[in-house]
From TrEMBL:
Organism: Anopheles farauti
Enzyme class: transferase
Chief location category: membrane
Protein's recorded name: Serine/threonine-protein kinase receptor
Any Gene Ontology biological process: response to stress
GO molecular function: ATP binding; metal ion binding; transmembrane receptor protein serine/threonine kinase activity
Length: 473
């Protein structure tokens, strides 16, 4: 009789069992197949008398690895001597769950490692971004911020964010989208922080201030101040975006602002003179911008008062209509009304020594009173007004451009030099006699004198200066 291996047949053997050798006793927690030789007589059981589930014997031909048909012979003498019985199939079935467990464990480990890597990468990107948290409304795909619309201009984006009740600047993802589409064209300035480039975004000119990685604190602080709620003003440099660019070798920190082709007030006055009306417009616009900075707007989404701390002609930009706007807010401080304290940035930079007020030079300034910083700004404003007035052309007469105190200190003065000149000698820039003959120049000279009083409390406020200049226009 011949039956296939898959049938429920088992064989009951009479004979001797050969014990396995010690080296073949275990495999994956079980036994190697025990070989059973039967030199005796075999007989076959009925199918109903066996259960392969409990006694899964299989029959293998000697010297081969393939299963064979089971032979049950009728002759009594050694008819089954070439047949070997063992547990091979049973052990193969037992190995399968173990293999599945190992594969499952490996898959779980791979998934966990991938999730951990993604979290680490996201955490590093978030730390390097230096920007505010990404909020749901920052989506660039929504109808509110159609960044993918090729016809949308930067001014359109700005109007979207300022049309409501105050704004903290463009959403983060919009800023990144703009910054990463900018093509740098040429260098237009350099400073302690890095470089300023003229860039192009969809045909529009923008200014890109690139900070070195060492100046990360200054970059972060300036971006933070520019995004103060309700800060945007026509006489404050228009902020567009902040982003960090990592090319794998070094990290560049970008600050994208409006571009003004006339450059800084310093560059403009060096190359050109102005008439009395232009001088007044420039002076008035600078005073207006400073008054807006110094003013606190009370409300749920109000604006805190801000002091510049580094006001000078190089940090003031000349617009196309020859009015001015104030830039470079990296050293600015904010007044926290709730606690009546000053939010001073943690940066190693200091203001420009030539424009420092007497109380800053001799370190008598009260760092815990916000008005002290506003009065120091007003002192610097008086020096800027003096620079503009020198270049005022009246009847074909004007002076060459010079920095304040050009005649008493070296081009790069030290703190000690400025302290000696300003604090000890109490010197101020000289007023040319020709200014007295011109009513406009004479009025401007009186304003600047009231800006640089030795005693801080005697100086005019930025708002008072703005109103005075408005009456002269």
């Amino acid at each position: 009789m011949r039956v296939p291996l898959s049938s429920s047949i088992s064989i009951y053997l009479f004979g001797f069992i050969e014990s396995p050798s010690p080296s073949t006793r275990s495999l994956a927690g079980g036994l190697y197949p025990r070989q059973i030789r039967s030199p005796g007589i075999c007989s076959c059981l009925e199918q109903t008398e066996v259960s392969l589930k409990h006694d899964p014997y299989w029959c293998w031909q000697k010297n081969t690895n393939e299963p064979q048909w089971m032979d049950c012979c009728k002759e009594p003498d050694f008819c089954n001597k070439d047949i070997v019985f063992g547990y091979a199939q049973a052990q193969e079935e037992e190995k399968w769950p173990e293999q599945m467990s190992i594969i499952t464990a490996l898959c779980v480990m791979i998934v966990l490692l991938a999730v951990a890597g993604a979290l680490i990468f996201y955490g590093r990107r978030k730390r390097n971004s230096g920007a505010r948290q990404i909020l749901p409304e920052d989506s660039v795909c929504g109808a509110s911020y159609p960044i993918l619309n090729g016809h949308t201009t930067i001014q359109d984006f700005i109007e979207m964010t300022t049309s409501g009740s105050g704004s903290a600047g463009l959403p983060l993802l919009v800023q990144r989208s703009i910054a990463r589409q900018i093509q740098l064209v040429e260098v237009i300035g350099k400073g302690r922080f890095g470089e300023v480039w003229r860039g192009r975004w969809r045909g529009e000119n923008v200014a890109v201030k690139i900070f070195s990685s060492r100046e990360e604190c200054s970059w972060f602080r300036e971006a933070e101040i520019y995004q103060t709620i309700m800060l945007r003003h026509e006489n404050i440099l228009g902020f567009i975006a902040a982003d960090n660019k990592d090319n794998g070798t070094w990290t560049q920190l970008w600050l994208v602002t409006d571009y003004h082709e006339n450059g800084s007030l310093f560059d403009f006055l060096t190359a050109r003179y102005v008439d009395p009306d232009t001088m007044l417009e420039m002076a008035y616009s600078i005073a207006t911008g400073l008054a807006h900075l110094h003013m606190d707007i009370v409300g749920t989404r109000g604006k805190p008062a801000i002091a510049h701390r580094d006001l000078k002609s190089k940090n003031i930009l000349v617009k196309s209509n020859l009015t001015c706007c104030i830039g470079d807010l990296g050293l600015a401080v904010r007044h926290i009304v709730a606690t009546d304290t000053v939010d001073i940035p943690s940066t190693h930079r200091v203001g420009t020594k030539r424009y420092m007020a007497p109380e800053v030079l001799d370190e008598t300034i009260n760092l815990y009173q916000f008005d002290s910083f506003k009065r120091a700004d007003v002192y610097a404003l008086g020096l800027v007004l003096w620079e503009i007035a020198r270049r005022c052309n009246v009847d074909g007469i004007y002076d060459e451009y010079q920095l304040p105190f050009y005649d008493v200190v070296q081009p790069d003065p030290t703190i000690e030099e400025m302290r000696r000149v300003v604090c000890e000698d109490q010197q101020r820039p000289s007023i040319p006699s020709r200014w007295v003959a011109c009513s406009t120049l004479n009025a401007i000279s009186k304003v600047m004198k009231e800006c640089w009083y030795q005693h801080p409390a005697a100086r005019l406020s930025a708002l008072r200066i703005k109103k005075t200049l408005a009456n002269l226009r």
